[in-house]
Each structure stands twice: as C-alpha cells, then as structure tokens.
Amino acid sequence: xxxxxxxxxxxxxxxxxxxxxxxxxxxxxxxxxxxxxxxxxxxxxxxxxxxxxxxxxxxxxxxxxxxxxxxxxxxxxxxxxxxxxxxxxxxxxxxxxxxxxxxxxxxxxxxxxxxxxxxxxxxxxxxxxxxxxxxxxxxxxxxxxxxxxxxxxxxxxxxxxxxxxxxxxxxxxxxxxxxxxxxxxxxxxxxxxxxxxxxxxxxxxxxxxxxxxxxxxxxxxxxxxxxxxxxxxxxxxxxxxxxxxxxxxxxxxxxxxxxxxxxxxxxxxxxxxxxxxxxxxxxxxxxxxxxxxxxxxxxxxxxxxxxxxxxxxxxxxxxxxxxxxxxxxxxxxxxxxxxxxxxxxxxxxxxxxxxxxxxxxxxxxxxxxxxxxxxxxxxxxxxxxxxxxxxxxxxxxxxxxxxxxxxxxxxxxxxxxxxxxxxxxxxxxxxxxxxxxxxxxxxxxxxxxxxxxxxxxxxxxxxxxxxxxxxxxxxxxxxxxxxxxxxxxxxxxxxxxxxxxxxxxxxx
Length: 508
Hints:
The structure is a single chain. The chain is α/β, with parallel strands linked by helices. The chain folds into two domains: 12-244, 3-Layer(aba) Sandwich (Rossmann fold); 249-504, Rossmann fold, CATH 3.40.50.300. The chain is built from 16 helices and 24 strands. The strands form five sheets. The chain has a nine-stranded mixed beta sheet, with helices on both faces.
C-alpha cells in the first residue's frame, strides 16, 4: 500500500468496515470488508462460494440493509434449497434471476441472427443496472462472472464491462461481491487488479478421508490481513473458517508454578514437577505406559478442580476408561463432573486448522489448564502434507505455553525393545522429554522411566523403574546397578534391591 502524505491521509475519508457474514473471515481481515467497494470470491465449483456469498447478504438483512442476489447461473429454487439445508430464511433478500439472452429457450430468439454477443452483453448489463437502480441495495452478489465472460467473448470487452460495473456500483454506495468459478483457461488476473479484494476458496482431494477445504486472502487493498491458507468446513449454518493460528497474537498472564502428577516420586524425578506454561513429550514403545502416565496428570488436575482436555487420536473413550479403572484412576467420575473433556479425533475427517481451533476453544472457553494430545502419530496422519507438521505444532505449543497451559504430547516409537525408530523428531520443540522403555531382568519384563530433558530447571538424571498396578503408578528408586537399560538389554552389575518386588510387578 502506497504511503500517503499527512495532508492526503487527513483528507481521505475513513471507510466504514462491515461484516462479511463469517466470523472467521472477519477475524482474518481484522474486522471485515471496507464498505462501498467491490470484492471477488473465486474458486472451482463446489468450494462454497455460493454459501459464503449468501452469508454476506443475510448478514446485511439481519442488520436491516437491502441485499440483492443477482444470479446468472443458479436458479432461485437452487438458492432456496441451499438456504433450507442451512436452516436460513431468505425473507428480506431480493433475488434477481437473470437468464442471458443467448441461452433463452424462446425458439424465435434461438433462430434469430440479430442478437450478436455485443447486444447480449449490453442487454444483460443493462438489466443489472436497472434492477440495482430500482432496489438501491447496500449489498450485492453477482453469481457468476463466467457467464459475463462467455457473453463478452474476448478479454478486452470483458474487462471493459467489469470496469463499467465497478464504476456504476461506486456511484451507488454499495458493497459488491463477485463470484467466479475459474472456468477460464488461464488465471484471470485482470479481475484481481480491478477488485478491491480477492478471496480464493479451494477444495483438496486427499488420498484417504474427507476432502479438505481452505481459504486464502490473495489481496485486500488498505487492509492488514492474516496471510496464508486457513482451513474451513461447510456445515449446517454456513462456512466455519478456522483462522491460521499465530501464537504471537495471544499472550496471557499466569502463575508460573509446578503442576503435580499426584505421584511424589515422579514429581521428585522431575525436580518438583512440570511447570505451567511448558510442554512435555512422553516417548516410548506401544503399551509401555505413556497414556497411563498422562492420565495420572489429568486425574491430579481434576482433584485440584482444574479443567483438562484429552484429545485421543488412537483410542476410544471406553478403552481409556477401562485403562484408568485398571490402574485405580477415577476417570469416569471426573468426566461426569465435567472437569475432563474427552474428545476422540478421527484423523481422516479433521483438518489441522480445525484441530487448532478446537484446542483454542478448550483453553479460552472451557478454561482447560492441561491439554493431552495422544498421540502425535495420529496427528501426523491428520496432516494433508507432513512437511508442515512441525511448523503447525510449533505455533500450537507456543500458544499453549503463552496461555499458561501444561501440554502433554504422547509419541509412540517403532519397536518394543532394542534400537527404536521415532516417526518424527519433535523433541527440540519440547520443554521436557520423558523416556519410557521396556527392559528385561530375570525373565520378567519391566518398565523404566527417565527424564532426558527439562529446559525449565533441575531434574534427576537417574533411570527409575516404574510399575502400573491397580494402586496406580509406582516409581522405584534409581537403578544404579544396571547399565544399557535404554537399549533394552541391560547388564546387571550389582545388588538387585532397587527393583520393585517381582510379586508386586504386573498390572496394566
């Protein structure tokens, strides 16, 4: 945007901002559209242009403004069906169903040679002008430009006609949204130069699962907007847009204190516990006890009357409740009291943007002070492009840290014993890393736990055995008489007294 001199800036009238009808798009634009300007929604058929255009008009009707939908492609019946599916009423909305002359079913006009494209385009444009002049609406949608492009037949006449529309609407003091289905063989950048703002809607087909939809503001004159792609879904009620999370925009004051796990020995191993406003990665092979360890934090938070949310990508609620019951954790009671919200996530149906919005809602609306993501393996599968997982997770973790939330991330390694492979290296983003491993001694499979990283302060550097039983999680003293425990094949070098008693070992 070009800089203005102080005198010019003072003389330029400040444009009123109006809502687009979408809370998410208003957020991306920092308040909505500048009024009395012309905007372009472009996207392939099926991306949601008609739906979001109707939201724009119905917002005007709700505010007592005159709104007009000029349709050259959709019929009035089709628009009524869209509205009915979203439980909208079209009362108060003017719909002008305009059929271009060259596609009329009147046989006399089909056979005539007196209606060349110039006449058809001029007649169509005049009909639009006349209807707008008669109704004097504040908000207008024209659906779609592809019909005008076909009538114009060449780019020069098409551009001139769109410019004529722009100048006419500018004199009418109305805000206009043009829809374009990108049916031209080339990108129609001349529309971008004419329009005050351009919004692109896309629909992506991934190899498995539901299609993904995303939106990007390509241009918006004089408005500072949030760039990049923003996921959205089409649900009953219209488009639900999830603005891309930028952690730097969200800061909150909070008490920097320890969060107890409810287990004294585990807290001692962690140098007093995990701090609020940090995140911890629980890493280990399948079944070693990562989710159970996370559950102990969730239950301890509930006993302090703090809210938690548990996002499960891999397990159902029934499985998690059975696991908690087996190790003596009162999960069901805390769920019934509303202190814990359990949400099972289907990776094939959820976009990363929607997931981030869900996490934000848990923190800002539900007041969650502890968030568990179980597991990152499932979250990785939810990504349409895994290259950006680290970037999105970095923003999400930074946001949670700035809100004073403790975040527990569960990551399953490949393999059970011996050398293990990690599907994704996210340890450098984690403030703390707890490693859980199986090891064998005297024909018994045991579990070991160690804190291998803690940015925020002191922690023990020992390896301790832990046990899952009906009495919960038991943590033993340091395993000073072993070496090679993390390799899965430890060497015993002394007194086995640090081991938990064999008859007590077992459980979940």
